[in-house]
Design a protein that fits this description.
16% of the residues lie in helices and 27% in strands. The protein contains 2 helices and 8 strands, in the order αβββββαβββ. Strand 1 and strand 2 form a beta hairpin. The longest helix has 16 residues.
Length: 154
């Protein structure tokens, strides 16, 4: 039985491998896949938004923030983690979802940043290439406790 198994494996290797030691030539006829579009670089100011939860209410401070396209917002856990930042797809300007999805890293879902569990941890969102308008967002675990806010991009 062992002899048949060894012979079978040898036959498969010879059929698949061709002549020993040779490497098949690379297929140069296929077009290379285009590289994904790079996210625009942040070019403006950096702003901080505190994320808090006291067991009764969740808050982003400031609850309303006005920035310019190209600015970065650092969302920092101050108390009551876990926290994250998620944008409502129907409460942001047309074209904003594409801009945010290019600049948001480590997302849990489209327009949804990762959970941050340590005090002092931060999540940065670049608004590079973001169209002007209101961006309404919330903290997923604390939305039932009123944790939502708005950024206005000028």
């Amino acid at each position: 039985m062992r002899a048949m198994t060894v012979a079978g494996v040898a036959l498969v290797l010879m059929a698949c491998g061709g002549k020993g030691g040779e490497t098949p030539a690379a297929d140069t006829t296929a077009a290379a896949a285009p590289a994904p579009a790079a996210a625009p670089a942040a070019t403006g100011a950096t702003h901080e938004v505190a994320m808090d939860f006291d067991g009764k209410a969740g808050t982003f401070t400031p609850a309303e923030l006005t920035i310019k396209s190209g600015d970065v917002v650092n969302f920092v856990v101050k108390s009551g983690p876990p926290h994250n930042v998620a944008f409502w797809g129907d409460s942001i300007p047309a074209g904003a979802a594409d801009a945010l999805n290019k600049t948001m890293t480590e997302t849990m879902a489209p327009l949804t940043g990762p959970m941050k569990v340590g005090i002092g941890e931060a999540y940065s969102v670049s608004f590079a290439g973001a169209p002007a308008g209101d961006y309404k967002y919330y903290c997923t675990p604390h939305l039932p406790f009123g944790m939502h806010a708005k950024i206005t991009v000028q």
